[in-house]
Amino acid sequence: MAAVQSASNAGAHYLGFIHFPPSPRHLSLAHIEAIAPVAGRAKNVLVVVDPDDALASAAADMNAIDFLQLHGSESVERTRVLGQLSQRPIIKAISVRSADDVAAAQAYLPHVHALLFDAKPPASGDWLPGGNGLSFDWTMLDQEWLKDQFWFLSGGLTPENVAQAIQLTRAPAVDVSSGIEKAPGEKDEDKIVAFLAAAKGKTHGT
Predict the structure, then answer these.
(1) What is the pTM of this model?
(2) What is the dihedral of CA 199, 200, 205, 206, to 10 degrees?
(3) Residues 46 and 65: beta-carbon distance below 8 Å
(4) What number does CATH give the domain 2-153?
């Protein structure tokens, strides 16, 4: 709850709440409903991975949730269906390893509020769909079709590199998880404030 308050006070526009049991950041839907602010400037995002119809429908009944973020292998058609079931605008995470991954994301545009570009985890090993602290070659985002779109940059961002990342990619928005943690699943309030200050072009403490 303290992390939610710190992010909101520091000017975050979106607050993400992860519902994915394998993740150290997993929260039950009931817990999310209890801690997600119902009113305020920040919008609440329910982050899920390849949700079934029941979970998407449950999101429709969550008064505190404004957006549904899909962080799995959801197809374009599945994304459309999940938007209808959840009755929420969709943020679709795209795993990036090559420029072709970025280009293919264009097909989702009719069905999403925004795209979110994250690093594709290695094929082998015990990796989560996101929140791994991995980055990718940001120059792959230099594609003409993206210039008029609203999208998020994610993957390996920290208070130390987010300003440079925004300058290089001209990302309209950024997303962070592991880069503002003391340990997996444990947010650091000072890092939250420093990240948001850097993202907004300010010096921490001013």
Answers:
(1) 0.90
(2) 160
(3) yes
(4) 3.20.20.70
The domain locations on the chain are: 2-153
Would you call 61 helix, strand, or coil by DSSP?
coil
Best CA proximity match to 4, nearest among 184, 180, 183: 180
User: Which residues lie across from 93 on neighbouring strands?
Assistant: 116
Give CA–CA dist 122/140, Å, rounded. Answer: 18
Q: Which amino acid is at 148?
A: D
pLDDT in tens, the chain (206 residues): 688 888 988 899 999 999 999 999 999 999 999 988 765 679 999 999 999 999 999 999 999 999 999 999 999 999 999 999 999 999 999 999 999 999 999 999 999 999 999 998 765 555 556 555 678 899 999 999 999 999 999 988 999 999 999 999 999 999 999 899 998 889 999 999 999 999 998 555 44
